[in-house]
């Protein structure tokens, strides 16, 4: 079982060079960089979060492509993942260039995690297509894959359109870096993954839900003539101990991803994961030393 780390890089905590080296040296396979370019100060509709607003750290995190680029210079094998990039908030031509450039200079270590976010009024700040974020995201991915594969191309979708353009450099990974959709385990997401992606990133799920997602994705792949073995399932967990590695692995997961922020490194029943993660996110930001201690505790918990 592969195990990755997700953590917030801000101006007030550990730097990406120190964090990246520590994650790689500890034996984790990947770093997942969260993404929020901006957050509303006072959401018109209260969010499904404590206090009805975003935690402070959501507005403090640095751009994921900056943190991943810096981290690439300090590591040699760590997979560099956007976990996940909010595609409707970015122009697909600029995004294609960012991903291919990072893949080039990292030696082919990028995994492009893509999603839409869950706050329509925030998406509206970035795009007039806020009412159809997944349609915009899928068209953007299709357009970017065309550019990554061929180095040039035109795209004429309903929401994404551009004439033939050149997109150089090409990514090292051919025909393109793996694309992972951050989504819920639904029949619709299974169809999307089979059609345009190489994996899915699931959060707040049970092993039973993972097994259902694996079965649904397999069925969709077989329906369109694709090999289901090409699809990788990554699952966000709080406790990466061998018990949960086994349970989620038997359900069809390939990787577990641990949110490091204020993690105490102690085992926890699965039913308490979501609440504990939110408590950790709302707590004061950890110091660099505290983050490194959390990383060591999680490494021990995972028995790496």
From TrEMBL:
Q: Does the keyword Oxidoreductase apply?
A: yes
Annotated Luciferase-like domain ranges read: 18-238
Name the EC number(s): 1.-.-.-
**InterPro entries in the record:** F420-G6PD/mer (IPR050564), Lucif-like_OxRdtase_Rv2161c (IPR019921), Luciferase-like_dom (IPR011251), Luciferase-like_sf (IPR036661)
- Keyword tags: Oxidoreductase
GO molecular function terms here? oxidoreductase activity
Broadest EC class assigned to this enzyme: oxidoreductase
How is this protein named in the record? Answer: TIGR03619 family F420-dependent LLM class oxidoreductase
């Amino acid at each position: 079982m592969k195990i990755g780390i997700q953590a917030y890089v801000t101006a007030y905590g550990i730097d990406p060079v120190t964090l990246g080296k520590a994650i790689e040296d500890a034996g984790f396979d990947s770093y997942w960089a969260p993404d929020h370019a901006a957050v509303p100060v006072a959401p018109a509709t209260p969010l499904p979060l404590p206090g009805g607003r975003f935690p402070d750290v959501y507005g403090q995190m640095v751009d994921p492509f900056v943190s991943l680029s810096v981290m690439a210079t300090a590591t040699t094998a760590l997979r560099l993942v956007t976990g996940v990039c909010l595609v409707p908030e970015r122009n697909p031509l600029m995004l294609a260039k960012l991903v291919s450039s990072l893949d080039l200079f990292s030696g082919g270590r990028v995994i492009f995690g893509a999603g839409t976010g869950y706050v329509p009024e925030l998406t509206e700040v970035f795009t007039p297509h806020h009412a159809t974020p997944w349609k915009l995201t899928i068209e953007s991915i299709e357009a970017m894959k065309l550019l990554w594969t061929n180095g040039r191309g035109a795209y004429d979708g309903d929401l994404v359109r551009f004439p033939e353009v050149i997109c150089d450099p090409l990514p090292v990974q051919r025909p393109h870096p793996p694309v992972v959709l951050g989504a819920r385990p639904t029949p619709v997401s299974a169809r999307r993954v089979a059609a345009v992606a190489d994996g899915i990133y699931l959060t707040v799920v049970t092993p039973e839900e993972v097994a259902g997602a694996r079965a649904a994705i397999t069925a969709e792949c077989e329906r369109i003539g694709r090999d289901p073995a090409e699809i990788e399932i990554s699952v966000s967990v709080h406790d990466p101990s061998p018990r949960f590695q086994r349970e989620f692995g038997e359900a069809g997961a390939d990787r577990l991803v641990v949110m490091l922020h204020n993690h105490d490194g102690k085992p926890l029943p699965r039913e308490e994961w979501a609440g504990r993660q939110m408590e950790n996110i709302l707590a004061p930001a950890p110091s660099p030393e505290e983050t490194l201690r959390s990383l060591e505790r999680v490494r021990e918990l995972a028995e790496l």
